[in-house]
């Protein structure tokens, strides 16, 4: 069952909408390269769209009614948005869940050192990466430094044209005989992914100062950001590809950028919420952290944040009880919105063509994920899959179904199984990506637009 290419159905007016939304998204991922930056930007956009901070709702004792819009932030790195529906929340919600963390390099707690007149930052890679893809690229530094006095300092270096960039060096081809004999997993070792940041010694440094280049770095950090070396102990600084996402292809039909996984699902999920007025069932957009490392911790999907904030929203609606909360979660329908692997003509051997995702054919549904024998998978029911098909067809949304490669090639998972633990109906959906988990990933603008249309149709069912 070959699915139709979505580009074929667009009128000139519709095509303009596809490109306009693609440009809106391209600017978003160019600006928001960390989970904190995503939350900050979406909060700003949500406030402009009439969403109220749930903390203020709770503090004021205000009661919520159908059509009210609220959001809650989880420790600056995740959030949930609700639009209250006409039905009692006990009858269930329509939930769009996505993650906003992406593979990257994190600075270690004691990162700064000097070696042979070069100042370096020690890193620990985050998420599943091919380490060799991260060398010889211009990299930027994004993050936050929390100081002992309770203040925080925002770091963003490498994005403006006048900013310096950083990078991980690689061995020259002339001396890489032994390196080239290694397996790809060992060509670049994790402990060799240190970032070069300076080479100029501090002028007028005390003769007792042995590491003069490191001293110069500390002098710059003190002058520009007011931070000391010890402040790295309470910092979260991420090393990410520098530069804006770009239109890709002669026809401008694609976008190459950092962090499509999973902001290419998170952003259209939020955008779909903006088009909802007063839904029958409460609409929810849930954006979480830590998916790339197992959804663990206080800001991951495995935390109690979503359960707790749903209880708070129900309390503000005057409908909370422990049993009502359990029923609200169990009666909900959810889309676990995460990316899928696009078929790559350069690597056909890992895909099974009948069950692969293709560029331009619309949003992708993965009935199940997992590895090999569906290990660790959420497996949506046939009935729920039929319901989703019906919603897509009624709303003229282009969609396709896929698996993550051939059965024995590997696999992967999403937050779907965690939502499924509440006994709700959930299926994986999202956008097909080339170069997944590489510093620069590629998506189709048609698939991005169809994902937004899918999420709108799902929320308005």
Automatic annotation (TrEMBL):
Keywords: Aminopeptidase, Hydrolase, Metal-binding, Metalloprotease, Protease, Zinc. The lineage of its organism: Bacteria, Bacillati, Bacillota, Clostridia, Eubacteriales. One of its GO terms (molecular function) is metallopeptidase activity. This is M18 family aminopeptidase. It comes from Candidatus Eubacterium avistercoris. Its EC number is 3.4.11.-. One of its GO terms (cellular component) is cytoplasm. It comes from the Bacteria. It is an enzyme of class 3 (hydrolase). Belongs to the peptidase M18 family.
